[in-house]
Known about the structure:
Elements: H1 3-15, H2 19-30, H3 37-57, H4 61-64, E1 80-81, E2 88-89, H5 91-103, H6 123-134, H7 142-162, H8 173-187, H9 192-204, H10 221-241, H11 258-262, H12 277-280, H13 295-308, E3 315-322, H14 324-330, H15 339-342, H16 346-356, H17 366-369, H18 372-378, E4 381-385, H19 387-394, E5 403-409, E6 418-420, H20 430-445, H21 451-462, H22 464-469, H23 472-477
Parallel strand pairs: 3-4
Antiparallel strand pairs: 1-2, 3-5, 5-6
Helix pairs in contact: 2-9, 3-5, 3-7, 3-20, 5-6, 5-10, 6-7, 6-8, 6-10, 7-8, 8-9, 8-10, 9-10, 13-16, 16-18
Amino acid sequence: MSKELTATKKESDLAAFDKILQDIAEYVNIFSLTNKDEAYETARYCLMDSLGCAILALRFPECTKLLGPIVPGTIVPQGCCVPGTNFILDPILGAFNIGCLIRWLDFNDTWLAAEWGHPSDNLGGILAVADYLSRNDKALTIKDVLTAMIKAHEIQGILALENSFNKVGLDHVILVKVATTAVTTKMLGGSRKHILNALSNAWIDGQALRTYRHAPNTGSRKSWAAADATARGVQLALWSMKGEMGYPSALTATKWGFDDVLFAGKELKLGRPFGSYVMENILFKVTFPAEFHAQTAVECALKLYPLVKDRLNEIEKIEITTHESALRIIDKKGPLKNPADRDHCIQYMIAVGLIFGELTADHYEDKIAKDPGIDILRDKMICTENKQYTKDYLDPDKRSIANAVQIFFKDGGKSEKIEIEYPLGHKRRRKEGIPLLKRKFENNLDILFDTEAKDRITNIFADSEKLSSMPVNKFMDLFILPL
Length: 483
């Protein structure tokens, strides 16, 4: 067969892949992020914040018990490092470890649409692969990491705009697996064909149910499910680079494809063309680890705290006005079994804010949850939907996450109705939020590092050019604990 015919056949083979797979592969393979300064600046903050979240998670034994090699004592020569530890692991297990730390406390950046999720979950796979490659035969810089982050955020976020996986019982971490698969295949040197093959396998994988996110089965898996997804993405990328085949109609095959089997016969859609929209509009959890639909509600509670802290026994009822997604996801009554249950209950989070005047990861633990005052306040709460809040939540030009809280007392008095439309981590509050995000990072560094080590890290993040040009392995070395 002539070279021309061979080339034509190869193009024809690639063209047989589902359109969405082709769109993702083309975006990852050739889309230029030139002149996307805002996206890169935001990605730098995402990297900073994610690593801070990872360090904070090291305080929690339920997280750290999952870290390290599967077989104790295993060391992978020239493997990747896990921040805040001295583990040296293969990039698949490294992706799980890094992803687990970043995601554990539900404190990393968030994206809300028809489907919600945390695009920085992909950083587990991205950092693991970048570090592994940099310690071997392919030098990568933090600029390469930021580029991969922007594209992973975009893939996950754009797929989430009009495709609601939770409504068919699937967990949103499917999008982490897809995004990680695409960008890490490219990082490994994959061609368009490699990316398509890997992507098709990501969609074919048996997808996780949301069982562990909802009563009566709410549990800690929701804190490591995304880590599992990003690690699987790396595995599929590595297999593709070894020549493992793909499946062109993985999504659309009649009867056996993803759309028919797992998506109720609906066709997946792209809400808008791929670019850098998601990274530029990402939501940061700046001051407290509250599920994002409740961020503004907790902010309202903290504003009311000075008024009610000495009058908790006088409260008759608490009215919470919210949007439809919050009612569907975090409006919970009855017993809450564990931290995974509590951090997705709007009533619990508001009660903690009103009683303690703050909300930290420790407030979800059993020691605090035993306080009888929390459930007393929860029982006095009424949640109702404001249709305008719901409309503005879905408006792509607003993307607000509004909540309002008002306290009514037994003597007939009432508080002002506190309403907050945009949370502190929203793009519309960047100027206000970024200094606090930096403080959050510095406070997390204090958990693990002395002043000298902390200064080295913060100085690197303060110099965007120096950070971007820094070899990934040298950057990761800043976060390694000595043996």
